[in-house]
Amino acid sequence: MPPYNARGEENGAKRNRAVLIGVEHYTGTRNDLPAVATNLRLMREALTDGTTGVMRPEDLVVVPGQGGPSATVSPLRVRAALSSARDGVDGLLVVYFAGHGIVRPDGSDLNLMFTDSRVTRDRHHPFVDTLSWRDDVMPELRNSRADWVVVILDCCFAGNALAAFSPAAGQNFALLTAAEPGVEIPPGDPGTGTEFTAALHRLLTTGEGEPVTFTRIVTGIRRAMAPLKAVDGHPWIPDERRHGDDVVLALAALPEPSQPAPAPAPPLPPSPAGPPSTSPAPSPSSGPPPPADAPQAVAATGRKRRAASVRRALSALVGRMTRTTAVVLAGVVALAGAGAWFLLGPTQGDDCGSPLELRVLTDPDLRPTVKKAADAYLERDDAGCRTVGITVYDAKATDAVEAFRSSSLWQAPPAACPPSGDCLRPQRDVGAQPDIWIPAAGSAWQRATAGGASGTTAAATGTGEPAADVAKSVVDLDRLGPVAYTPMVLGVPDTMRLAQSLQTDDPLNRIVSALQEAQPAEILRPDPEGTEGALLATDALYTASRAGYVSTVETRMAQALPRMPSTARELMCALARSSNNGLEDKAAVLVPEQTLAQFNLSAGKAGRPDCTTEALAHRVAHYPSDVPMLDLPFVRVTWAGADRDADERKAAVEEFHDWLATDPDAQKAFTDDGFRGAGESGPAPPGAGSVLRSEDNATAVREQIPATGPSTDVSASLNDALNRYRGALGPGRVLYLLDNSTSTADKRVWDGTGGAKELVARSMSSLGAKDAYGVWLAAVEEGKPATDHVPFGLRTGDGDGAQKAVTGARTAAFDARIADGLSDALDTLRNGTTDAEQPRLLVLVTDGEDLEAVEEDERKELVAKAAGTPLVRIVTVSLQSGACADGRLGDRLAAASGGRCLDPAADIAVELAAEVAKAGTGDAE
Amino acid sequence: MTYGHRHTGRRRARAAVAVGLLVFLSAACTGGPGGTVPSGQGGQAAEGPIIVASGLDVTGSGSVRQQLIEEWNRRHAGSKAEQAKLVELPGAADQQRSQLLGALQSGSARYDVVNLDITWIPEFAEAGLISPLPVAETGVAAEDERDFIRRVHATTVWKGRSYARPFNTDVGLLYYRPDLLTAADITVDKQPHDDWTWDQLYSSVKTLGLNPVSADERAGWTTQLAPYEGLTVNTVEAFADAGVELTDSEGKYRSSAGKLKDGLDKLLDRVGQGQVQPAATSSHETESLTDFAEGRAVFLRHWPYAYGALAGLMGRAEQYAVNRLPGKAVLGGQNLAVTSVTADSPRAANARALITFLTSRESERCLLDAGFAATRASVYESTAKPCWPRVAAALRPAGDVPRAAATGEGAPERQTPEARAAYIRILGEALTEAVQRPRTPYYGAFTQVLQTHVHALLGRTRPDTAEAAEQLDKDLRNVFAGR
């Protein structure tokens, strides 16, 4: 059978490709390889030569494409090039690699190294940001659709690839390696390329009268390399493996009479001139390697002996030293070496380095699961050193988006905040600057990046946040891919009537209308500011709604659940609590499918949430066709100026992502919690152990995910939904009763950050021109009414004045008349308007002392009055620990009025602002 | 000659390994990296401000840290380079640690001075993220240094070098109900005193006839045994009493299954014989404080700030008293360190001067007055220097009348000057004998492992401490080796 010829007539319609990978630049301690640039040029010339080349110029994919010496080559890019070639080539595929190669101590697992590759002391996963020939490259190429695959490796230990040469049955595949297994090769000359590639170039371009086949190349190159020596004087013998007959790599050249016959290949490399030597080596004391392009005259044979003796001495040293020192030595050698050899010492020593800390920000709905997965990641290898530490935390989805949009303030908070304390300080209020962000859905990423990189926060979200004017984006947010999936569903109790046909393929509004037509039903959902899932559901809920609908929906929800649950889990827990039983029976919930599936589990089943009870009905998932699926995108966050460990951090982030997305243990953490795993091209079908496949969920969820909402950019629509949500409940009536007795100052809770005045002033930012509000001071002489410090009423254009008045308030040397103040405030809020639906909020801020002093009969009266109508929610802020305990006055007022009691165990500033935002129309949040 | 040349780079690299190794080993012999403190003055002008990162102050201290920084700024009003700015971090300790580590490793934010929990010093020092501070051998500066309470100052040291100055400290104390003890005929001389023991506490509990089965019944004592740092603290206190030292001063594991069993038994004794409040295994600081304040425990292990908080919660002063914790008490608190990047920059001197100011005798007095435990011995003495006047004024707002003359409201009748002086004496003494939690760069992993094991043990009805100790020993060996 004649050798395969990609340029033969029979293959005219085939697509050929050569992927040429050259890694010249290394960021770690590994030497750069300046000869690689020349290698790429030589290979390009040889393969696309007008006469002999088997490729057309457009068939070449060169990595890096452009950029010269500083161009970086990442394994991701190489993988992408290989994947694309795997699917896109049906003729000849040539893959060429020049760069550093590295193997494990036993010689197995050749890894190709790229610009940011590094070696760790992790015994099981020592190589980071490399591609394993065995596990990455070979499996990719094994699935190639090409007629012929030819791989050429010009790197140290290239021969070690031969042991893992495993083409598919019947596949035509040839592998040519620069040397035999275990052999390292010199880095080559920048001007002429490496010895191996230079010889290959000559063979390919001087084929005389017949085509240059793979077989001819093998013979020719072995002959060409025979006079040379590899590192340590080892014979330099290129090696090969082949599956299939033969393949043409260069066409026949026209004989040129003037040129001498090239075969056998010339023993001397073409340049530069100088006497050949077989034993070069520098003195061990000659310091760091000179730039490779600085010619050096090195010839002395004695030097080689000295180098060899240094190496022997080192080996002896390793043999004699303690384990600890051996590991240190191995580390030094591996890092300082030219990258070709790697000596992994015993990892049982006790000198583990400092782990790299990864900060992982996630959506509140995801935190428990991501935390579990991260813990499993840290435990995945309990024998090796911990190379990373991971801290998983959450923040309200909207806060996270806002903070990313104003990321310069996340990096460095504003120099000064207004006295009201009303400014964005994400380090304090959102959390650590993340290295990884796992929002619930890609829409959060869209919102964070919408409208370009710089902070146009105020315009984009309509919040008018003053600090945002100066904020700009100093982050790059790279999506590395989903780690799991779960669709948003409407969970409807079994007992409610709803046509089966509405389980799939209908928009949310149609399902909701049908449900509400059939029986009284409440639609409940967590805080749309809190989780991305709730916001996406809210957006669908508001779609195509008639005027006033949003207000009706939100008011009903606020009445059903006085405190908006911050996560889907909290919503379900709230329903499971007995006091909500009446509501529970008629509540359809908008939650992720995984939450619904968990709460459907019967008692005793693993994965059943702690808070649930038998009172909670079994619910069936209805899949709205207009709510996008939660696709848990893994986003790498890169901060401007964070360049101290950029390469290492990037590698650690990518490694964690790869593990999350592919490792069975990682995926188990998600599927155990009812998520759907990350498959090749979307959600994987639930496996046998999945919560979704439990018999409790047999009738509740679909095995195949029905059609979900669009994955297009929905950020504008979501911002609009948020604004409508924020406006839905107002305008409101809000009265603050501020305890200004001297004890607040004595206890140091009056002034300063987190002090009573700042808390009040800050929360007032959530009130707008349409809201009626005021501030009373409670410390007055006995028998007097509370001081009308900011008179109750509309404050058109005077919001700042009211805040300033609060920050200027003084303490008074009287007891705070809490009981009278509360009673009068309730009257004020209830009178003067006939709109019973208008939100009313009474905020009591106290150090707790005078609250405790209220007598029991007064308490009873107050609690009874608080429960009256129109509804006034009472939020008590007690700046002293323990004052909100069960049965204390703050707790009783909250229970009677559907309000809350906040003490230092809660994040008072954030929670109070959220409570006021619910009643007001201003800058919510 | 090309051949020879082509080998050169490779060979030289190999040789560089050998040279690098020699340099490395000799550096190790002379004390290792960080052997010198860079002056950081390199002729460049320092640029301000000095950025101080610290956790959100959740103690209700009235922002005393902010006030101290403002005092420093007023004292350096003319110098832009010396102005300091406080950057607040989240209140939760694990997030503070994560941000400080991540930011200092990567450079994602600039910090010059960091306020570190004392248990993090080895981790940050070992990772080279903070820089050792120069040690004064003689003179005023040396004397000033010696004023720090010895055991508190020891929390700044890692492998023989001091990396920080102690800012505020903390120590376990015993709160109790003298009224209930007296009512059970336990006379004052048999109530807690300086040398009180756990056996005496058990005996009092027995006399009181307490045997709580549910969380709403009165218990002997309560503490923080939920699976978080509080559980680690309580466990380390019991371990220290049983003579169990988990690590040496350089983080090497020093215990064994046998010793750990003694420690675990000691902790279980406290739970059992002390008739601990059943809710304690899910209690943090706030819950345990509330249980004590509401009469569901006669004794309470808590931190100094509870002294002020209880005054508000319990009404009458005679209802509670405080003394040293029987046995060993664990140290808490925070230390101020200069980041390594800043130590190499022109801002180094200013950053160190700021730390010196923030931990001065006057500033420490301000911290004590604001409810923190101060780190200097002199602050607890009657001759202590007063707090900076403007800070004191800011902490006591304008219009506030002096305490002794106050009318209407009654802080003075709750904490008499005598009672406060006695409390300060007790606190000072407790600090001088307090013990540290293990010193290790792997503290985060250690505390997780300990909490998991111990909390599981507390949940069992008939725990096998020998088996638990074996498992714990195995896991701690790994953890302290960074695995």
UniProtKB/TrEMBL annotation, chain A:
Compositional bias annotation for Pro residues: 257-293
Top-level taxon of the source organism: Bacteria
Cross-referenced InterPro entries: Pept_C14_caspase (IPR011600), VWF_A (IPR002035), vWFA_dom_sf (IPR036465)
SUPFAM superfamilies (UniProt xref): vWA-like
Domain VWFA: start-end pairs: 733-879
Region (Disordered) residue spans: 256-305, 667-692
Spans through the membrane: none
Protein name stated in the entry: Caspase family protein
Source organism: Streptomyces atroolivaceus
Automatic annotation (TrEMBL), chain B:
Keywords: Signal, Transport
A Pfam family per the record: SBP_bac_1
Leader peptide range in chain numbering: 1-30
PANTHER family hit by this protein: ABC TRANSPORTER PERIPLASMIC-BINDING PROTEIN YCJN-RELATED, ARABINOSE-BINDING PROTEIN-RELATED
Family designation: Belongs to the bacterial solute-binding protein 1 family.
Name the record gives this protein: Extracellular solute-binding protein
